[in-house]
Amino acid sequence: MAEEAKLSPLTGEMEGGDGALAPLSLCGVSVLSCLLLACSYVGSLYVWRSDLPRDHPAVIKRRFTSVLIVSGLAPLFVWAWREFTGVKTTPSLLALMGIRFEGLIPAVILPLLLTMVLFLGPLMQLAFDCPWSFMDGIRVAFDPCFWMLCFSDMRWLRNQVVAPLTEELVFRACMLPMLVPCAGPATAIFTCPLFFGVAHFHHMIELLRFRQGTLSGIFLSAVFQFSYTAVFGAYTAFIFIRTGHLMGPVLCHSFCNYMGFPAISTAMEHPHRHIVLSSYLMGVVLFFLLLFPFTDPSFYGLPTPVCSLASTTSSLCLP
Fold first, then answer.
1. Dihedral sign, CA of 206, 218, 172, 253?
2. Which of 2, 4, 84, 190 is the most exposed place for a label (fewest CB within 10 A)?
């Protein structure tokens, strides 16, 4: 009986089995698996033929069905990758994908708090412009009718729930375990978002289809969105690797979808621009000061499951 291949913890090479994959082959299989997964996710959005725009409730409901099916099947890609490559994984498949209880409470609170620090300027701007008082906001937040209204809004449900959950599951929780054994945690953080960024180019199709702007404007918009989503994807990949949890990236994704890209030009013309712009600067400084302390793996259980796949110890996986 042939001995099963395993990943050497010292060299990162496949060893110990008949027909074991060389490191180059392991990387090829990993990248191909991620590419197929990304294509499956984006392709599922277009299985429904419709002349309606993407924000129409009927289109959103159909796409919910597609992406939820693909996201439900996405763990099978990780399982098939593990079986094909023979990579040994001590943690369970669910733990590798960030679905576990250990360190869950810090994983829910700290990454979201860190992201809110980064958005200190936009939050300050929002506070100045909001017609509600603080107590009004508290009352609305605890009003069941408000949340029933939100969950009945298909666009809100897509932007705040379904898109963050399915995209983080597919593009972080499923792809990073396949990329880390090949590339290591640091390289995987910057490789994984490329699939995420390219996947957002599909918005160009709909902009061109419904002629929502000039060709050059649509192209520039797509390039900007790719850049923004790639940077954001690197950030949530960093959080996933450091915390070993899916929940943190999902909540950060939902929050960023709600806030949108910071309106810096508006902030410069704001009546309280000195306070707002100072908040922007303070938020960025505090973010970088707190980035590693708030994602310290010791808060979430050492070692984080995805870090156990690395062939060598990475500083990203250390407190």
1. negative
2. 2
3-class SS of residue 271: coil
Place of tokens 């129409």: 56
Q: What is the largest CA-CA distance in the chain?
A: 76
pLDDT exceeds cutoff 60 at 2: no
Name the band, by pLDDT with cuts 50, 70 and 90, for residue 79.
very high
Q: Enumerate residues 6+ apart whose C-beta is below 8 A from 173.
A: 97, 98, 99, 240, 246
Q: CB 212: neighbour CB atoms within 10 A?
A: 13
**What residues are labeled active site?**
167, 200
131 — pLDDT class (breaks 50, 70, 90): confident
Least confidently predicted of 32-41, 49-58, 156-165, 280-289: 49-58
Burial of 296 by CB count in 10 Å (0-12 exposed, 13-18 middle, 19+ buried)? Answer: middle
- Distance, in Å, from the CA atom of 240 to the CA atom of 234, rounded to the nearest integer, reads 10
- Residue 210 pLDDT exceeds 90: no
Assign 90 a pLDDT band (cuts: 50, 70, 90). Answer: confident
Contact 218, 212 (CB under 8 A): yes
CA distance linking residue 227 with residue 97, whole number of Å: 25
Query: What is the C-alpha to C-alpha distance for residues 12 and 125, in angstroms, rounded to an integer?
Result: 49
